[in-house]
Amino acid sequence: MKLSAFVLAGCLIFAVPAVQAHKPLVSCFDNGDNTITCQGGFSDGSSAAGVMMQIKARDGRVLQRGLMNDNSEFTFTKPRDEFVVLFDAGPEHRLRVPGNRIAQ
Predict the structure, then answer these.
(1) Cα distances (Å, whole numbers) of residue 45 to 3, 16, 19, 27, 40
(2) pTM surpassing 0.90?
(3) In the chain, what is the straight-line distance between the N-terminal and C-terminal CA atoms, in Å?
(4) What is the DSSP string of the chain?
(5) How many CB atoms lie within 10 A of CB 30?
(6) pLDDT 10s per residue in the chain (104 long)?
(7) What is each CA distance from 100 to 52, 60, 69, in whole angstroms?
């Protein structure tokens, strides 16, 4: 009986991180007025308010940066050249959206 309780406790300890895991989600769309809005969040439904957003040039230079607002949105001026949107909520919670993948 003690062994089965020990095994059950071990299984629960290792299952907790899987239950708490959440993946970042971001969707960007062209507003048609030379701006782009990105909406973010996490697969467990948590907000992305305050998440760092960066707009980077092809060579890696940061063109624009800011934070997701209280509605988990970030709007920026569309760069003229190729760019990438970086949603950066920390290690293992980063997403890149190439500008050419954002529907016009």
Answers:
(1) 37, 18, 13, 15, 10
(2) no
(3) 63
(4) -HHHHHHHHHHHHHHHHHHH---EEEEEEE-SSSEEEEEEEETTS---TT-EEEEEETTS-EEEEEE--TTSEEEEEPPSS-EEEEEE-STT-EEEEEGGGS--
(5) 14
(6) 443 433 333 443 444 444 456 899 999 999 999 999 999 999 999 999 999 999 999 999 999 999 999 999 999 999 999 999 999 999 999 999 999 999 87
(7) 21, 16, 24
Q: Which two tokens stand for residue 22?
A: 């959440």
